[in-house]
Specification:
Elements (H helix, E strand, L loop, with lengths): L1 H13 L3 E2 L14 H4 L8 E10 L15 E10 L5 H11 L9 E10 L4 E10 L2 E12 L2 E13 H9 L8 E3 L2 E2 H19 L2 H20 L3 H20 L5 H28 L25 E9 L4 H20 L8 E6 L2 E9 L6 E9 H4 E2 L2 E2 L1 H9 L8 E5 L2 E10 L4 H14 L20 E8 L2 E2 L3 E2 L2 E2 L3 E3 L8 E3 L6 H7 L6 H17 L11 H8 L5 E7 L9 H12 L2 E4 L5 E10 L4 H27 L3 H6 L5 E3 L3 E2 H18 L4 H12 L8 H5 L6 H9 L4 H9 L14 H20 L13 H14 L8 H14 L6 H21 L4 H7 L6 H14 L3 H16 L20 H16 L7 H7 L1 H13 L7 H19 L8
Helix pairs in contact: 6-7, 6-8, 7-8, 9-12, 14-15, 16-17, 19-20, 19-24, 19-26, 20-23, 20-24, 22-23, 23-24, 24-25, 24-26, 24-27, 25-27, 25-29, 26-27, 28-29, 30-33, 30-34, 31-33, 31-34
């Protein structure tokens, strides 16, 4: 290991870095060292490399886990400013360490890094070596609350993991640290004893006092305008906080207060550092921005050609691959439509490293055209036959002589106008400007900056390839100029290759091991996974793994399947734990047997060809370490009862204004009991609701769910069963988390369904109360998903069909009010409206006719009844009876004033209703009312008994003048029609029809 450190020091020294020493106080990562956290602030250039022992008490495992250590060794590199090729420099360092990049699978996998305590964030990647994260690679955007300019590149190596791979050992203790000396022999005792200290023996009161003392001293140093000692004491605060956290000794309030304090002190230290460096006039100078690119001379293209345009990027997040492709396609399509340039089909394809647009049959130039420019009115253009200043000014603005103007009739009004010839531009002119705009306007859901002075995108744009046929198309954007080369796999003998023609580019890339077509890549993933699984008698659940398959498709340019295996002993762990580890951390596809049970195999995909045995071995070692961690969590969690876990929820924050997770669990439990009572559940189901409510959300305090949040509910069931809880209670705790997605599985039991509703009513209500409502694509708390989930439960569980959305929201609001949270009535109305709109969307997306959906939206409060009413409506629409009823009721509704009968029903003298048509209508309405008693909301029943009423309505309108001059008669007749309308309004919004 010492040789690896020396190698990295020499490599980065040779590449312009200064070698410094570790900090002499505990830090959780090399990032926290002032050589990074402070030096990246300000305009001074700074390239540095150093070893940093990184102390993380929460990673203590007594030296048992092969990959997790409380103190691990990082090698930290800062490149400021971004040199433009940091990934290539990094890969060169791996080669220097002896890693064969052709044999191994090295990938850059999305990582959006943030440190709340440092007030820092950046975008970049985890670097994987055969599935193991070995490096954090980040473009810092902000540190200490200070926006960075220039941007720095951080490369943080995990040396133990790299050395385990290089030396072929499966545990950090077996790493050869020096000749004849292993890592375990040097540091094994340290790992055990410090783990004991952090997890078991550190004195809580002492560390609380230390935290306060360190924070106080940091404040004193800031008051003395000494940023370096101030920041050093912030680091001591941070380590003490981590010790307390590992001991489980921080409440929610203490945690929030400590984070706020450390963040504030860090921000002040960072700003003071920047001020001090400015006062010293930046001793290291200032970093120069790259010079703007100069566009080459435009060539001449005289024939119709194909356009090829490639935007080359560093690895995009998988979710941005399709989104960026669509955005670029739409941008080019709309911009071309705004020109006169003729062209054929536009095609857009992408991989993680490139977005490629081809436009067929691009004509050599735009056609010439004549443009008419309108000036002032003719009446204002001349006075006594001489041109007025208005005419002279117009002609001057157009560079024309006043005698050149003509009169133009526009809708009967004469204007002065000029006709100007507008010669068409060449395709090269049009495209050079247009494509530069496309690049400069690139944006994603989360954008970053790099060394370019004006570009911003999801990840750095590093090259542009532009050809019109075989002719290079010059484009200049900020500091970036187009060329005629593309970049293929970094491990290729020639990673940069010349492109000579726009035609057949997808095939050209295929020859270099890159599959440009996304569907082709996805098909290759599915095919490769099936074949690899079939070799061991298994299969892949393609439908169930569709999301993961999509992700794999967009994180590689050429999917190469590799099957690995793991020890069958791990199958003793819950299969949900094993598959979650595979999917969440490793992007592995689980292999199932014919009965759908998990087999001890997985399928991973390398990015291009590799040494399968090397990659398989590396990925198996990673999974083994992951499973050891899961087994550690499992064993630890089983020592704690669900009730004890439930008691720990007060240390977890739900939302600052809404209390702790314990507060939320209490609200859910109370709300679930209320809903069960409203739904009149059987006694056994109600008892299950009560007991499961008492344990609600307990698993959120377990180590397994803290590590794997998607296992919430799953682990609740596992732990509850093993603690001796009834199977019904355990299942209800699991089903409380369902559905997990808009189309996900729903609770099968009544108790689980009630808890699921309580969970979602609490979330929706709480978020509206504090104003955290969904806006556009932003919905950080999953409010829309919760609304859809509660609708799906109400629509699908017959026992809960009678529950009203409004009742659930009000009951949830009462729980918040009891907690002292103010709940404005308008917030509940807004929440109900959101749920109504989700219900409307569900019905529309299911293919129901728009006007019928609008007619049943009155039942959004009872969506199950709304579904039944819609089904009945679709059966009756078009029948003679229904159409007659609709027409008759529309006549009634159209004539009624918006506020009901004049004077109100109490003020009406119904004795004025004496005409035969009036009496028949009153009798028919009463007959229908009696026939619908206790089923007033039944549309089919109304249709079945409505024939006499329809006839009576039509006769009434034929024989009676509703708006009689006698106001008393008019009021009586309107009141009668209001009676009829009330019969109809209990079933549908008839006006929508």
């Amino acid at each position: 290991m010492q040789d690896a450190i020396l190698t990295l020091q020499k490599y980065w020294s040779d590449n312009g870095c200064m070698i410094t020493q570790p900090l002499n106080t505990e830090v959780g990562a090399g990032t926290a060292n002032p050589s990074t956290a402070l030096r990246v602030i300000g305009p001074e250039p700074w390239s540095v490399a150093y070893v940093e022992p990184s102390v993380r008490p929460d990673d203590s495992r007594y030296g048992e886990n092969p990959n997790r250590l409380q103190t691990h060794t990082q090698f930290q590199v800062i490149l400021k400013p971004d040199p433009g090729n940091p990934q290539e420099l990094y890969l060169g360092s791996l080669r220097a360490l002896g890693i064969d990049l052709g044999a191994h699978d090295v990938r850059f996998v999305e990582d959006n890094w943030a440190s709340p305590a440092l007030g820092a964030w950046g975008l970049g990647w985890e670097v994987w070596l055969d599935g193991m994260e070995i490096t954090q690679f980040t473009y810092f955007q902000q540190v200490g609350g200070v926006t960075l300019s220039p941007v720095s590149v951080e490369i943080t190596y995990g040396l133990e993991r790299i050395l385990m791979n290089l030396q072929g050992v499966s545990h950090f203790k077996d790493i050869a640290y020096a000749p004849g000396i292993t890592y375990g022999e040097v540091f094994g005792q340290n790992e055990y004893e410090m783990s004991r200290h952090y997890l078991d023996d550190a004195d809580v009161e002492t560390n609380h006092r230390l935290f306060e003392s360190y924070a106080s001293e940091a404040r004193r140093m800031l008051d003395l305008e000494l940023p370096i000692p101030a920041y050093t004491y912030v680091l001591k605060c941070s380590h003490t906080f981590n010790v307390l956290d590992a001991r489980g000794a921080l409440s929610t309030t203490e945690r929030a207060k400590a984070f706020s304090l450390m963040r504030g002190l860090t921000h002040e230290s960072a700003k003071l550092w920047g001020q001090r460096r400015a006062a010293l006039e930046y001793p290291l100078g200032t970093a120069a921005a790259p010079a703007p690119a100069v566009r080459a001379a435009l060539p001449t293209v005289l024939s119709t050609e194909t356009l090829l345009f490639e935007i080359g990027v560093e690895e995009l997040p998988y979710s941005d691959v399709r989104a960026a492709t669509d955005a670029v396609r739409e941008a080019i399509t709309s911009k071309l439509a705004a020109t006169r340039l003729g062209h054929g089909a536009i095609t857009a394809m992408a991989t993680p490293r490139r977005m490629v647009i081809t436009v067929e049959k691009v004509e050599p130039r735009e056609p010439d055209t004549v443009r008419t420019v309108r000036g002032p009115k003719a009446a204002a253009a001349y006075r006594d036959g001489a041109p007025t200043p208005a005419l002279l000014g117009f002609a001057r603005s157009q560079g024309a002589d006043p005698s050149d103007v003509q009169v133009l009739d526009v809708n009967g009004v004469d204007y002065i106008a000029l006709t100007r010839e507008a010669p068409g531009r060449t395709a090269v002119e049009v495209l050079s400007e247009l494509l530069a705009e496309v690049v400069s306007e690139l944006r994603s859901s989360r954008n970053m900056r790099w060394n370019d002075p004006s570009l911003s995108f999801s990840r750095p744009v590093r090259w542009l390839l532009a050809l019109l046929g075989s002719t290079p198309l010059p484009i200049a954007v900020s500091a970036l100029a187009s060329g005629t080369t593309t970049r293929v796999h970094r491990t290729a003998p020639d990673p940069v290759v010349q492109v000579t023609s726009a035609v057949g580019y997808a095939h050209f890339l295929q020859m270099h091991g890159i599959m440009l077509d996304r569907q082709g890549r996805r098909d290759a993933v599915v095919r490769g996974a099936h074949e690899a699984a079939a070799e061991v008698g298994g299969f892949i659940d393609v439908a169930g793994e569709a999301g993961l398959i999509d992700e794999i498709t967009d994180i590689v340019e050429y999917p190469h399947p590799v099957r690995g295996s793991f020890d069958e002993g791990y199958l003793d762990l819950p299969s949900s734990v094993l598959t979650t580890v595979m999917r969440k951390h490793q992007r592995y596809l689980p292999v199932l047997d014919g009965d759908g049970r998990l087999m001890p195999y997985f399928i991973t995909f390398a990015n291009g060809t590799c040494d399968d045995d090397v990659v398989r071995s590396g990925n198996e070692a990673v999974l083994r370490a992951r499973y050891e961690d899961a087994a550690f969590f499992w064993r630890t969690d089983l020592k704690v009862s669900p009730q004890d876990f439930r008691g720990r929820l007060d240390k977890l924050t739900f939302e600052d204004r809404l209390g702790t997770v314990a507060d939320r669990a209490d609200r859910i439990a109370a709300l679930a009991r209320d809903l069960a009572e409203r739904a009149v559940l059987p006694q056994d189901s109600a008892a299950t609701v009560r007991r499961a409510g008492e344990l609600a959300k307990f698993d959120l305090a377990s180590q397994m769910v803290v590590e794997f949040s998607s296992l919430a509910g799953v682990m609740a069931e596992e732990y509850a069963r093993r603690a001796g809880e009834p199977a019904e209670v355990a299942r209800a705790l699991a089903e409380m988390e369902l559905p997990r997605s808009s189309g996900g599985a729903l609770p099968a039991g009544e108790a689980g369904a009630v808890l699921s509703l309580a969970d979602r009513f609490d979330l929706v209500t709480g978020m509206f109360v504090i104003g955290a409502v969904p806006t556009g694509s932003s919905d950080p708390y999953g409010v829309r998903r919760a609304a859809i989930g509660l609708l799906n439960v109400l629509r699908s569980v017959p026992a809960l069909a009678g529950l009203r959305v409004a009742d659930g929201l009000r009951a949830a609001a009462e729980r918040y009010a009891a907690q002292g949270v103010d709940v404005p009535a308008e917030r509940l109305a807004e929440a109900a409206e959101l749920i109504t709109r989700r219900y409307e969307q569900q019905l529309t997306e299911a293919g129901h006719e728009h006007r019928l959906v609008q007619a049943v939206l009155v039942w959004a409060d009872r969506p199950a009844h709304g579904d039944r009413t819609l089904a009945a409506l679709e059966r009756h629409v078009g029948t003679e009876a229904f159409e007659g009823l609709t027409a008759a009721l529309q006549r009634v509704l159209r004539i009624l004033p918006g506020d009901g009968a004049e004077g109100g029903p109490e003020a009406v003298d119904r004795s004025r209703l004496t005409a035969p048509a009036e009496l028949r209508l009153a009798e028919s309405a009463e007959a229908v009312r009696q026939a619908l008693r206790d089923r007033e909301d039944d549309l089919t029943a109304l249709v079945e008994v409505s024939a006499p009423l329809v006839a009576a309505i039509n006769a009434f309108f034929d024989e009676v003048l509703v708006m009689d001059p006698d106001l008393a008669v008019r009021a009586a007749r309107l009141a009668l029609l209001e009676d009829v309308a009330r019969l109809a309004r209990t079933t549908l919004d008839w006006s929508a029809l």
